[in-house]
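User: Quick sanity check before I run a bigger batch. Here is a single chain. Can you write out its predicted 3D structure?
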Amino acid sequence: MRIGEAAEATGTTPRALRLYEARGLLPPPPRTPSGQREYGAAEVARVRVIRGLLALGLTLDDIRRRAHRLDVLVQEQPSVSCTGRPGEFSDVVADRLAALDAEIARLTHLRQGLAAAAQGASSNPDSDDVPALGPQR
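Assistant: Done. Predicted structure follows.
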């Protein structure tokens, strides 16, 4: 199947397929004599796994760190699990969880600061002052 058909079959775009190939997540598919990419069932299955991992919150860089092991997950479909075997994706998942936890903590702190600033402004309804939201000098 051509790139448009493969993209449709995997719920993505031709541009994404080219990106996956450029990032080393998808081996370069065979080409027709006219130079068009030809995707088969194996490539489609691999893209579905990549899409599943992205939906779980992993990044392209996370997946690229274990691109050489994506075939293991392709064989384990339909349920994409990236924590099943030690050494497969568990370290990548642990790193992503730590990054998400740090981002959640940063956003929670940011939200608390914004809420406090908004509460301070609303406690004085006669004031037209904009609360100081940035660092104080």
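The mean pLDDT is 83.

User: Great, the batch can go ahead then.
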